[in-house]
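Narrative of accomplishments. A recurring question from our advisory board has been how the design workflow behaves on a single, concrete structure rather than in aggregate. To address it, we present the structure tokens for one chain from the evaluation set, followed by the sequence designed for it. No filtering or post-editing was applied between the two.
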């Protein structure tokens, strides 16, 4: 899986980039190597917003696009929240595809004598 990390109003340091790549390694093992993940990190400039660090992730898969957005007080925590949400979506997507294949196989067995 290719990971693109962008910063909007935020400087993406090498340490932050490494932490994000390490965090998304689990998802990377579950999806195709052709999948692409865009992680956009930004900061809300409004002082009244307590959770001003925002992480948005978009995962482009074959036939599906999964998105997650979370905010927290620290950027690392926001990245962790986004990864957990995206991980749940990937798991759900894989289960859905697996069920469809099983139904198709069962239908093919029932039709073929």
């Amino acid at each position: 899986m290719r990971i693109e990390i962008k910063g909007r109003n935020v400087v993406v340091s090498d340490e932050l980039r490494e932490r994000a790549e390490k965090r998304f390694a689990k998802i990377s093992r579950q999806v195709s190597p052709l999948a692409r993940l865009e992680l956009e990190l930004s900061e809300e400039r409004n002082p009244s917003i307590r959770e001003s660090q925002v992480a948005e992730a978009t995962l482009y898969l074959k036939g599906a696009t999964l998105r997650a957005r979370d905010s927290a007080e620290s950027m690392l925590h926001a990245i962790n929240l986004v990864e957990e949400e995206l991980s749940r979506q990937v798991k759900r997507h894989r289960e859905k595809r697996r069920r469809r294949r099983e139904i198709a196989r069962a239908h093919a067995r029932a039709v073929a004598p």
